[in-house]
Specification:
- This protein is an alpha+beta fold.
- The protein contains eight helices and 15 strands.
- An eight-stranded mixed beta sheet has the order 4-3-5-6-7-8-9-10. Strands 12-11-13-15-14 form a five-stranded mixed beta sheet, with helices on both faces. Strands 1-2 form a two-stranded antiparallel ribbon.
- Strand 3 and strand 4 form a beta hairpin.
- The relative contact order is 0.14.
Length: 276
C-alpha cells in the first residue's frame, strides 16, 4: 500500500497544498477572533461545553473554496460541514479550528489541520498554529518538519520518566471516568499534560515535547494530519478503528515513541483507560 500511494499521487504537491491553505485559514481565524468573541457568535454541538464559532465555519468555507480551486472535484470531509464519508480514493480531511474552546478563551494553543487521505490513509498533511505561526507538515515517506526543520520523536526508554499527553470527552460522565483512569496512570509516568488540541498533541510527540499521547473518542479530522506528522517523525501510531486486537478498543488513538510503546499500552489497560 505504501508504494502504491506514493506512486499514484504526488504527495509532495499534496503537502504543499495543505500547508498553503492551512496558512490562509490560520490568518482568517486570527483576524476573526476578537469579532467573534465580542459578538458572542458561539453555538454548541454535542454538549454545552462543545462549542463552535462563526470563525470555525468561515475557516472551513475558505478551505473548501481554496481546495475547489487548486484541487477541483476532490471530496472534502470537514468538522463543520461534513462531507464525503467514503474511504475510497483521495479525500481531504479538515478541522478548521482544532481547539475551539482554547480559541474562544484566547488561550494560544489551537490550530488549523488539513490532511489528504487516500483510501483512508493520510499521505500528506499540515497543522498550522495561528498564534505562533508555527507550521507542522509531513508527506508519506518524506519525513515531517516544523518550520522546515526535521522532526524526531524522543528517545525515552522508561515509562516512569515519560511525559504523556491525553484529552477528555465532552460528555460529563465519560470525563469523570477518564479522569479516574488518569489518576491511576499518573503514578506510573513522569506526568500528564492536557492541551485540548489533538492535532497539536500529536505534533508534540513528533517533536519530542511529549513522549506519548493517547485519547478516546476522536474524530478523523482530529487526527488525520497530526498522526501522519508523528508517524513520519518516528512515532508508533495506533489509530481508532484500526481493527487490531490489542485490547485498547476501537476508539483509541495511541501515539508514542517506540521504546515505551508496549509499556504505555499495558499501563493504559491497567489504569482502566481502555474501559471508558
Amino acid at each position: 500500500m505504501f508504494v502504491g500511494l506514493v506512486n499514484e499521487y504526488d504527495v509532495r504537491e499534496l503537502r504543499t497544498v495543505a500547508v498553503r491553505i492551512a496558512g490562509l485559514a490560520a490568518e482568517l481565524a486570527s483576524t476573526l477572533r476578537e469579532e467573534v468573541t465580542a459578538r458572542g457568535d458561539v453555538d454548541t454541538k454535542s454538549t454545552e461545553t462543545d462549542v463552535v464559532t462563526a470563525a470555525d465555519r468561515a475557516a472551513e468555507r475558505l478551505i473548501r473554496d481554496e481546495l475547489a480551486e487548486l484541487r477541483p472535484n476532490e471530496p472534502v470531509l470537514g468538522e463543520e460541514e461534513g462531507g464525503d464519508t467514503s474511504l475510497s480514493g483521495l479525500r481531504w480531511v479538515v478541522d478548521p479550528i482544532d481547539g475551539t474552546v482554547n480559541y474562544l478563551y484566547g488561550y494560544p494553543w489551537f490550530s488549523v489541520s488539513i490532511a489528504a487521505q487516500v483510501d483512508g490513509v493520510s499521505v500528506a498533511g499540515a497543522v498550522v498554529e495561528p498564534c505562533s505561526g508555527r507550521v507542522w507538515s509531513a508527506a508519506l515517506g518524506q519525513g515531517a518538519d516544523l518550520d522546515g526543520k526535521p522532526l524526531h520523536v524522543s528517545a525515552s526508554e522508561r515509562l516512569d520518566l515519560a511525559l504523556i499527553g491525553t484529552g477528555f470527552s465532552y460528555d460529563q460522565e465519560r470525563r469523570n471516568a477518564q479522569a479516574g483512569a488518569v489518576a491511576r496512570l499518573v503514578g506510573e509516568i513522569r506526568d500528564i499534560r492536557r492541551g485540548g488540541v489533538a492535532s497539536l498533541d500529536l505534533c508534540a510527540v513528533a517533536a519530542g515535547w511529549l513522549d506519548g499521547y493517547y485519547e478516546y473518542g476522536l474524530k478523523r479530522w482530529d487526527w488525520a494530519a497530526g498522526s501522519l506528522i508523528a508517524q513520519e517523525a518516528g512515532a508508533l501510531v495506533r489509530l481508532p478503528e484500526s481493527g487490531t486486537d490489542d485490547g485498547l478498543g476501537d476508539e483509541a488513538i495511541l501515539c508514542v515513541t517506540p521504546r515505551i510503546a508496549d509499556d504505555l499500552a499495558t499501563a493504559l489497560k491497567r489504569s482502566g483507560a481502555t474501559e471508558v
